[in-house]
Known about the structure:
By secondary structure, the chain is an all-alpha fold. The chain has a single domain (3-218), classed as Glycerol uptake facilitator protein (Up-down Bundle), CATH 1.20.1080.10. 71% of the residues lie in helices and 0% in strands. It contains 9 helices and no strands. It has helices at 3-33, 38-64, 70-78, 84-108, 110-113, 128-148, 154-166, 177-183, 194-218. Helix 6 packs parallel to helix 9. The chain is globular, with a radius of gyration of 17 Å.
Amino acid sequence: xxxxxxxxxxxxxxxxxxxxxxxxxxxxxxxxxxxxxxxxxxxxxxxxxxxxxxxxxxxxxxxxxxxxxxxxxxxxxxxxxxxxxxxxxxxxxxxxxxxxxxxxxxxxxxxxxxxxxxxxxxxxxxxxxxxxxxxxxxxxxxxxxxxxxxxxxxxxxxxxxxxxxxxxxxxxxxxxxxxxxxxxxxxxxxxxxxxxxxxxxxxxxxxxxxxxxxxxxxxxxxxxxxxxx
Length: 229
């Protein structure tokens, strides 16, 4: 395997792992250890994920593009920014990285869990599904538009968007199939039972496809590039 590809999949693995760790461990710390109420825990979770995501994009953006998300990889494939074989490897290692992040989070808080992985029974259903469509839509649209316009603030904007939308969606914005899969394997409040998780992933795919359609509509002319005044 080409050394460049190895570097890229390692970056996707590590970024996915630390993103999941931030998403789960902050909730465990505030609910289980600090015994905070759920509102405070969600606020801490939003701040943690936003800060960590900004750092991860800055660290790995120039290596792999810092996707950390199968639907982001998929739309980059649609845009011919990445080949099929590399996209497949990215998605595989994103998922492996996410599950590893769950296991390592359980290891950090082993006294709270008693094991490295556990199938979640945390119910997230009904109207919450729409939150995943909206959350994934705005995330994917933002990434596509920021890449298209060659923004130099992608890490900050995406990090703040994710943190903000985590507080503004009924689902607390998973917006990421690998994160959803990883959170199927935690017994913490961050978890999601597999049945609901699969529907979340379907909603995330719908949201990303809608975002791609709107993006193509906005940039219907290939020469349309927004420039700073």
